[in-house]
Amino acid sequence: MSSTSAHDPRRPNKVVRYKPPNTNGGPGDDPTPDYMNLLGMIFSMCGLMMKLKWCAWCAVYCSFISFSNSRASEDTKQTLSSFMLSISAVVMSYLQNPQPMTLPFQ
Asked: Which pTM value belongs to this model?
C-alpha cells in the first residue's frame, strides 16, 4: 500500500472546488422568451376579440419563438397556455369565417 501512495500523481493541494456561475441577472439572462410570450398573448387576444386572422397567426408564431427560446429549467405552464390560446384564436377565427385570410395591407 505504501508503494502506491508514494507514486500517486494526484496533487491534493491543487484541487479547486467547482462553483457554478452566478445566473441571477447576469449576461446569460435573455428576455426574448418572455417578450415573445407576452406578444403571443396580446396577439391571440386581438385575434379572438377582433376576429383578425393575421393576429392569430402572429400569436402562433410568437408562441413558437417563445417555446423554442425558453430554458428547460423554466416553468412551461405560461408558455403552454400562451400556445394553446394562440391555437384557439386561429381555430375560432376560422370557425367564424372560413374564407382565406386577406392581409390588411393589400
From this structure: 0.70
